[in-house]
Design brief:
Number of strands: 22
Distance between the termini: 125 Å
Structural class: alpha+beta
Helix content: 40-55%
Shape: elongated
Number of helices: 22
């Protein structure tokens, strides 16, 4: 019997009804690492004490033994872990004789460490599978799924149908299934991991996936399965697209600003020449009409340049606190006149008046541009809704738009029921000169101008559009909390404007304005790097009685001042010039004569360079292109100030 007990791999211990050891094999001593003197000691208490010291959960084991003493007929099964990491499966049952007589209890101890570790590893792997944010799967060489995690099932089977036991063709459309099977074949053929970007068409839209696939080998090194870890990178792709779009728009803005600056100089040259030609005596009767047509065309070109400057955020925006509800109400009154009877226009207001700090003219331009596009998208009529409401952009919402920041905003929504746009067109709508309209209809600058105004006002825009289902522009502008004084001032301004309009309407046309005398005297230093434009402006000012000195840049201007011992009444200077630009020239001039009067002229907005000027740098500003009349009028007003 002893030989039989010692040959088994399990530890065996038999105790009598008084819990005294009757028989114990060597395996018990080996499992619990009991010294021989303790294992052979007839006093079982030493062995019990030694065993309990080697068990991690000794208190639980002690409680189990105590329970078995009070329930002698109970069969028990449990696992215990020793301090050295060994895991034992413990089985205990009563020893019964004839007629059910109980002689004692038998304990068996089996080392199940490997099995326990395998189960623990399996649990950890399952936890990884269940909690991973990536879709994980395993397929056999025939393409049938052996394992998937919940994310995979949710991603590829939104209805919750498990993929295990199915093939890719049973889960996906033929084209997508063929693509993935081709990637699996590459893994098997190359015998190494590969990484691919894939797309997945779902009812809720297209998803972009990054799939890493790898071969699974058996002990002999033979490939027996293909595993994969797929990450949904749709949000990252969207952000990348926004970043590229933002970079492109910034590049377009810089290009547009440069073009606008140079083009403004050309237009200024044209307008001043036309003004001087129109003032020549003895012109043929039809010539003045031609000159007016040319001047009108030049002014239209100037308006186009202004749109480019708005887009590039170099056009001045005249910020003031404004109630957006009132601005939109005024715009919609104008809109109803040209939208036509087939388009139903609705203006909706939120419960709290939305206030912003912005340029009313620019806000009107945004809404007008969007509504004109909406009208063109509804040739047979439809519904157009404009809504302004206060809202809060949360952190999780802002992360989806590179331009967005969490905070309090006013949201302007412009929604139409028109033709909508495809994703390809939607990605280009803010590009300058992009248009879907026929040739010679529209400049393609409408939405790029809208984009520039929104950015310059500190806001951002979302566009949702589905082909044949309509489009919604959602514009977010920083909200301003209006004080009681601002509300009262707004109402006062409206009353004053109404009174002034009434007084003007009542006045006789002949008494509304008197002819201005644009002649004058004084010495003017004209600083302009475009030689032709400088000479033309100089002739125009000289023809009005002024003495004109010329300089091609700031350095030459300083030399001229030194030559004439500072006897200059006014400096008219361009802003962007080589060697020394306008802001640098201003600082130099004011250091010599703090009272010297200065007019800056520029194709850029005043705001675009004012930040580079000293805080006390007083000056007048005239935007290019301008007519000779505008130039001499600004000169006279500045000298008289």
């Amino acid at each position: 019997m002893e030989a039989l007990l010692n040959s088994t791999l399990d530890g065996v211990l038999v105790v009598d009804s008084q819990d005294r050891k009757i028989v114990q094999n060597q395996r018990v001593s080996d499992l619990f690492k009991l010294p021989r003197e303790i294992a052979d000691d007839p006093d079982d208490r030493r062995q019990v004490e030694a065993v309990m010291q080697r068990i991690k959960n000794g208190a639980l084991v002690g409680a189990t033994i105590a329970r078995l003493k009070t329930h002698p007929d109970e069969v028990a099964h449990a696992e215990s872990e020793l301090l050295d990491g060994t895991v034992l499966e413990v089985f205990s049952a009563p020893v019964l004789g004839p007629k059910g007589k109980r002689y004692g209890r038998i304990f068996t101890f089996r080392d199940v460490t490997d099995r326990a570790r395998a189960a623990e590893t399996q649990q950890r792997l399952q936890a990884i599978l269940d909690n991973s944010s990536a879709a994980i799967y395993l397929k056999d060489l025939s393409g049938r799924f052996l394992l998937t995690n919940p994310v995979y099932d949710e991603l590829f089977q939104p209805q919750g149908n498990a993929a295990v036991g199915k093939t890719t063709h049973e889960l996906l459309p033929a084209a997508e299934a063929a693509q993935r099977e081709a990637h699996d074949a590459d893994v098997i053929a190359q015998g190494r991991p590969i990484m691919r970007e894939e797309t997945l068409e779902r009812p809720d839209g297209r998803r972009f996936l990054l799939a890493q696939k790898f071969p699974l080998r058996d002990a002999a090194g033979k490939i027996v399965a293909v595993g994969g870890i797929t990450t949904d990178i749709t949000e990252r792709k969207n952000l990348e697209a926004q970043f590229l779009q933002a970079q492109k728009m910034e590049a377009f803005g810089q290009l547009a600003g440069g073009i606008a600056h140079d083009f403004n100089n050309i237009l200024a040259f044209m307008l001043i020449n036309l003004g001087m030609m129109g003032g020549e005596p003895g012109l043929p009767p039809g010539m003045r009409s031609y000159l007016k047509d040319l001047e009108s065309s030049a002014r239209r070109a100037s308006a186009l340049v202004r749109q480019l400057l708005v887009f590039s955020r170099r056009e001045a925006i005249r910020i003031r606190t404004m109630n957006l509800d009132q601005t939109l109400a005024e715009v919609t009154r104008l809109l109803r006149r040209f939208l036509g009877e087939q388009i139903q226009l609705e203006l909706q207001h939120g419960p709290v008046p939305p206030w912003i700090e912005g340029d009313p003219a620019m806000i009107e331009q945004i809404v007008m541009n969007l509504c004109v596009n909406a009208r063109d998208a509804m040739p047979s009529g439809g519904n157009l809704t404009i809504q302004a409401e206060n809202c809060v952009v949360e952190e999780q919402d802002a992360v989806m738009n590179l331009s967005a920041k969490p905070g309090r905003y006013v949201k302007i929504s412009v929604t139409d029921s028109g033709t909508g746009m495809t994703p390809d067109i939607l990605g280009k709508i803010f590009d300058p000169f992009f248009t879907t309209k026929p040739l010679n209809e529209g400049t393609g600058l409408g939405l790029s101008t809208v984009y520039g105004i929104i950015k310059q006002t500190g806001g951002f825009v979302y566009v949702d559009s589905v082909e044949h289902q309509g489009t919604t522009f959602r514009i977010f502008l920083p909200r301003h909390v209006a004080s009681a004084q601002e509300v009262a001032a707004e109402r006062s301004n409206e009353a004053e404007a109404a009174a002034a309009a009434g007084a003007l309407a009542a006045a006789e046309p002949g008494k509304r304005a008197a002819s201005a005398d644009l002649t004058g005297e004084g010495t003017i230093l004209l600083v302009e790097d475009e030689e032709g434009l400088r000479q033309l402006n100089a002739r125009g000012l000289a023809s009005r009685g002024y003495t004109v000195l010329e300089a091609g840049n700031g350095v030459e201007a300083i030399e001229v001042l030194e030559k004439y011992d500072g006897k200059v009444d006014l400096v008219v200077s361009d802003v962007v010039m080589p060697e020394m630009d306008g802001p640098t020239l201003l600082r130099e001039l004011r250091s010599r004569d703090p009272a010297l009067k200065i007019i800056f002229v520029s194709g850029y907005a005043e705001d675009a360079f004012q930040k580079h000027l000293p805080a006390d740098g007083q000056f007048a500003f005239l935007a290019k292109p301008f007519t000779l009349k505008q130039l001499v009028n600004e000169v006279k007003e500045t000298l008289a100030a």
